[in-house]
Design a protein that fits this description.
Elements (H helix, E strand, L loop, with lengths): L2 H26 L14 E7 L3 H11 L4 E6 L6 H14 L7 E3 L12 H12 L19 H9 L4 E7 L5 H8 L3 E7 L14 H4 L2 H15 L7 E5 L29 H8 L4 H11 L10 H10 L4 E4 L2 E4 L3 H12 L11
Parallel strand pairs: 1-2, 1-4, 2-3, 4-5, 5-6, 6-8
Antiparallel strand pairs: 7-8
Length: about 350
């Protein structure tokens, strides 16, 4: 081989090496977040979640509306890298991977140490999508330095924003000032803490970051009292007694013991598996580990459904609860997960 040929091959090897390095860098780089087209009427959803199994179902329902401008993953049941990775995988499998999913904030101080073992069990299950995944797939995205700035291009075309909070309130406080002037309503799972039976915060989303929960409640109550701007805020929960709404499926009995009403059931999961779009993906997740949802309810599912069908809910104290049977609710969830656009796209 002549010196010139050796030089030519050396240049080729160098070029191939450079291209390989570039390809590997692109493959391992964090996914770029792109804003999708806004709905024609400019009404968008912004979802804030900690990616528990019911959160995944809720996001899957709203993904079919074409209105989800962005999803923020806040640390709670899932950590942010693992939560982002899990949710992106679900959306990819359901054909909705164009929805931007970004890393949100982590609270400080952390969840109380004495509850650590329970949290680790819940977290291990959620980050693997109820064992649908062999192992968590943490996103390579670095922590989001400024959540409000990251959301700005995604929400730029949104004239009205409905915020669904189904995780701790840590991230919300980071972007609230950026979006509140365009927010027409905020939907949260659970109930405002003064309406809890004990008068203290009881729900996981609040207790995981108490400081943010209290600060958010004060912010929203104060804002609703302003004459120039009113943000409707609704807390949505399962029924917590036999009263109201023509249902005999309370969430707790007379002694306060949880009954896990409005819950997933095997028949519903089999029905989902026979549908299309997001429905079979959710069915596969639930089938993977029945023990992962055995003692759960349709908590975040109901909060998401409230955005689509507020007419089937009624106020009970400071929260909204469904006024139809659990079987009817599950049918509505199936329709949303399997919807052909724009069937569920209208805001009521």
């Amino acid at each position: 081989m002549t010196p010139r040929t050796q030089q030519r091959w050396a240049r080729r090897r160098k070029l191939v090496s450079s291209l390989l390095i570039m390809f590997l860098a692109l493959a391992c780089a964090p996914a770029k977040v792109r804003a999708g087209p806004a709905p024609p009427d400019g009404r968008c959803y912004l979802i804030d979640t900690d990616v528990e199994i019911d959160d995944v179902r809720a996001v899957g329902m709203l993904a079919r509306t074409g209105r989800v401008a962005a999803v923020v993953v806040t640390e709670g049941i899932s950590r942010t890298p693992e939560g982002v990775g899990a949710l992106r995988e679900v959306l990819r499998r359901g054909g909705q991977d164009g929805i931007p999913v970004i890393r949100g904030a982590s609270p400080n101080p952390k969840w109380p140490e004495q509850l650590g073992p329970d949290l680790q069990t819940w977290r291990a299950n959620a980050e693997r999508l109820n064992h649908l995944l062999e192992a968590p797939i943490p996103a390579a995205d670095p922590p989001t330095a400024d959540i409000a700035e990251a959301l700005r291009p995604m929400l730029a075309a949104c004239r009205r924003i409905s915020v669904l909070v189904i995780g701790p309130w840590t991230s919300f406080l980071r972007y609230a000032a950026e979006v509140l002037e365009r927010v027409d309503r905020i939907i949260a799972q659970g109930r405002p803490y003064p309406d809890e039976l004990t008068g203290q915060p009881e729900g996981f989303n609040c207790r995981y970051d108490l400081d943010s929960c209290f600060a958010t409640f004060d912010l929203l109550v104060g804002r609703q009292q302003r004459a120039d701007r009113r943000v409707r805020t609704a807390w949505v929960d399962i029924p917590n007694g036999l009263e109201r709404c023509r249902t005999a499926e309370p969430g707790v009995d007379d002694n306060g013991r949880q009954l896990y009403a409005f819950r997933p059931v095997p028949e519903w999961i089999e029905a989902l598996a026979q549908e299309k779009h997001m429905a079979p993906v959710i069915a596969a997740m639930l089938r993977a580990n029945p023990e992962g949802w055995e003692k759960t309810s349709l908590w975040d599912d109901l909060a998401a459904l409230y955005l689509l069908r507020p007419d089937v809910f009624a106020a009970r104290g400071g929260h909204q609860q469904p006024c139809v049977s659990a079987a009817t609710i599950r049918d509505m969830l199936t329709t949303a997960l399997a919807a052909d656009l724009p069937r569920w796209a209208a805001i009521r």
